[in-house]
Design a protein that fits this description.
The protein is mainly α. Helices cover 76% and strands 5% of the residues. It has one domain.
């Protein structure tokens, strides 16, 4: 990866670093030491952080998101509510730490898997087609290019949700 490409990904890598450090601190302070608890903290902070960036400038986010997401291309309503779905998932993952019923846990993990898999499919299509697009992962607060890092982010989150789902079944 070129130095220019790495510099363009700096905001995304910075935010991911924030999520990891915040997860470590929250897990230690809250005594969330198990793998599943720490995973829920990570998912909560991830969705709240990325959802906030997307909601910050909703119109800018929607424009970028609709250029590659397979559902947002077809539904303005989906594109509009997507940041709030992520924010809701973040809150649900925090809720699971204290009072998660089996049904709520299944709903949360399946919802996260769905959102991240659909997002990953759109990213994969854009990458395969060689489109030079702005990633909407941080809204349009930062100009982050769409790369395999974006795909890894989406699929990694889907896999984490899937692993957590399988661990409770």
């Amino acid at each position: 990866m070129s130095e220019e490409k790495i510099k363009s990904l700096a905001p995304l890598l910075g935010v991911l670093t924030f999520v990891v450090v915040s997860t470590a601190i929250t897990s230690l302070v809250g005594s969330f030491t198990g793998l599943m608890q720490t995973g829920k903290v990570f998912m909560a902070i991830f969705f709240l952080t990325f959802g906030f960036f997307k909601a910050y400038n909703l119109e800018g986010f929607k424009e970028a998101f609709k250029s590659y997401d397979i559902m947002a291309e077809r539904s303005d309503l989906y594109a509009t509510f997507y940041p709030f779905l992520e924010l809701g998932l973040g809150l649900l993952y925090f809720l699971l730490l204290s009072n998660g019923s089996f049904e709520l846990e299944v709903f949360t993990h399946v919802s996260a898997m769905f959102l991240m898999t659909v997002g990953g499919a759109g990213v994969l299509n854009a990458i395969r087609e060689g489109r030079n697009l702005q990633c909407a992962c941080l809204g349009n607060v930062f100009n982050v290019p769409m790369t395999k890092v974006t795909l890894a982010e989406d699929l990694g989150m889907a896999l984490m949700a899937g692993y957590m789902l399988l661990s409770i079944l």
